[in-house]
Amino acid sequence: MWRFDAGRICLDLVATEPASGMPGTCEQLDGPGHLARWLADARLVPPDTVLTALDDIWVARFHELRSAVGRLMAAQLGGPEADGALERVNALASGAPPGP
């Protein structure tokens, strides 16, 4: 289901975004269940960890984090400036992770 291992978790997260303009691509992190599976498949939590704290708010936060990291990556590769993206990544990363 996941098209990654880029060698960096942040890039693996960006790879879950639908490819704009590509037919047949869809949102891979479309709910708490898929986010929990991605976290386990990415080895960010031990296998079979039940993440009961994950909800739609966590999914939205991961979408926001993914967007900010994608903008930072594009800026690093010569794309448009990623105004505020680094600050947003740091703010999102400062919170407690979703736990079991």
UniProtKB/TrEMBL annotation:
InterPro entries linked: ABATE, ABATE_dom_sf
Pfam family, one: ABATE
Designated name of the protein: Uncharacterized protein
Organism of provenance: Streptomyces anulatus
